[in-house]
Amino acid sequence: MLQRVGGAFGASGVLVSAVLAFGAPAVAKAPSPGPSTSASANPNLGPAIAGTAMCTISDPQITDVSGLVVTADGYAVINDSKAERARAKIFFLDEQCRPTRSVSYPSNAFDPEDLAVAKDGTLWVADVGDNTTLTGSSANRRSSIALWSLAPGGNSPVIHRLAYPDGRARDAEALIMDEDGRPIIITKDPVGEIYALTGPLPANNANPEPLTRVGTFRPQTTGTTNPYGIVGTAVVTGAALSPDGKRAVVRTMSDAYEFTVVDGDVVAAITTGTPRITPLPSEPQGEAIAFTLDGRYYVTVSDQPKATPILRYSPYQPPAPPSAAPVVQPPAPKAEDRSFMDSLSLRDITRIVIGIGLFGVLLVVIGVAAVVLSRRRRRAQLAAELAAAPADPAETGTAPAPADAQPAAATASTAPAARAALTEPPAGAASTEPEAGAADAGPTEPEATGQDEADPAAATPVADTSADSVEIPAAARGDQDAPKLAVPPTQATAADEPETVAATSAATPRKRTTGAAKKTGTPRKRPPRKGGNG
Q1: Alpha helix (H) residue ranges in 166-273
Q2: pLDDT per residue as tens digits for the range 217-231
Q3: pTM of the full predicted structure?
């Protein structure tokens, strides 16, 4: 790998020299590798801290390491295609990087470049390398790629042949096996193309299974120190999935890009997620990357023809943005120190206000109902009182009937009594004689003044009604406030008056009213007289 990259840089140098020789505009000298201005402004880029050496691979059979995983006993590594056929194996190392055993391929492995481990412990070798002539390879490019699977404790890997969808060759060095056992391959040339297998993975198949392009990984210009400068920051050389499947990492020669995996979708995490970038500074030729079994660290190794250390790095965790910083709340007061209003929440206050409003509405409804019922009862009471009270002529608008409009029967029945009252002088008073001319005019009826009626047999002439009048007693009227009605006079002729007067005197008992009775208006009853007139 180192020689190929060196050849690429040599070819690039020739092209640059030719351009300068033909008078191209002068190009400023590139600054020495170091953090760039844009990188320093990236909050997701961590500080460049050198890795910690865990152990050093020094066995002469293990050279040009291109793939690495962590096992329960230590590590597993592979050599790339530069190694001799006898050294193209899978090597298992202990924690001190000493080989414990090795497994050979059953057939020729073209260019193994990465190593992955599944949940069940199966090792997967990505035989996907295919360098171009620019990087030192021959013009004979491969038409297919392959994966090799080795079961835990197995001694013979199984081949799974794959092909890119357009049939064109690509150089790749990164492999991730997702939790469902599907391979995800990220190319180095062209940079960052992502291919995945959507169907079942065949084994020992002669016809390669086509892959599907599912996205692109885009490295950033971080400025992290590496032997190849800006080129090294853009070359993808390895990838891995954390043991819990929640994080995926893709590395270049200079940096490690970590993504959060949601619902096991590794492709979505790499293509749409925001990476957390951990610099891997000054590695000679960073090739492989893996998670430790607890997922707390990365381990890396470089492709070197000599002894090379396994380095450990702490993944960078960006600080939380200021807006996402937790707000420190003051301690809540104790229940005994809090007032009633302080103990109320916004929901409690809202409920109290709504309750008060509803209570007020209820009071208004009750008040309106009480007023309506009171008015109805008052109207009913007034109607009952009006129905029970006697009719008032003044209120009803009906005038009392005139005296001459009384029924004939009533006039006839009251006439003898009226005549008797006219002829009966009041007690203690002398009989009055009619004035001259009074006999010609006939007897006149006294007015109803509340006095007792005069005896009509006392004298034939009609008494002067100007002095005394006949008054209807209060008991007979029934109501003191009733209008006073004068007894209508009885019509009589001069020819038949003596007989009429005599008959009236004999039929009607005479009544006398004492002085006291006359003053008080209370009639004094006397037993009827026996006999006729006189």
Answers
A1: 229-234, 266-272
A2: 999 999 999 999 999
A3: 0.57
